[in-house]
Amino acid sequence: MTDATPATDPLREAADTMRAVRDRCVWTQQIDHRALVPYLVEESAELIDAVEEDDRAELREELGDLLWQVLFHAEIASRDPADPFDIDDVARGLTDKMVRRHPHVFGDAVANTPEEVLVHWNAAKAAEKSARTSVLDGVSERMPSLALAQKLLGKAAQVDVPPPVPAAGGAPSSEAELGDALLALVASARSNGWDAERALRERLRALSSAIRSAETA
């Protein structure tokens, strides 16, 4: 009786494919981390579309496209002469971090509610980021504006900074007043547990559908 053929590792195959492409594709060879950023943004947006449109086939494909971006960045990083790391280093770092942040799964801590899970998560994160001096450290200013507003409102609440109060009565009369009004709406979304960025995306999809219908009427 012969031994069965060992099962292949699809993730390892994907990493090996990425390495071969980097070695042999002249377009891929000239790409660096910065040049990849627009593709990362695009693939992330397409994945969000697939999730929010509940398209299972697209979700599977877009997850693959986003994974390719991760493999691409890791392969570029593996060839850095000063500070190389590869996808295995990335995976090991991720595993270590997730084990630390889930002591109720991998240790003796107890968490019976989502709120208790967050306590453990935030405590582990705070220990990891002990060198940070502000609650804003690590918050990317490149986030979409509504998502960033919601993130910053959460950070503001941690240090008891109230959001701006919109001008009373009527429509905003300046960009500054418009900004305050938008921020107040995001604060309302946050207090209700809503996602302001997603809410606007869904309304924009409805508007796009209405525009297309009008064009074909």
Automatic annotation (TrEMBL):
CDD domains the record matches: NTP-PPase_MazG_Nterm (cd11528)
SUPFAM superfamilies: all-alpha NTP pyrophosphatases
Pfam family, one: MazG
Chain ranges of the NTP pyrophosphohydrolase MazG-like domain: 33-106
Annotated InterPro entries: MazG-like_dom (IPR004518), NTP-PPase_MazG-like_N (IPR048015), NTP_PyrPHydrolase_MazG (IPR011551)
Protein name: MazG family protein
Organism: Microbacterium gallinarum
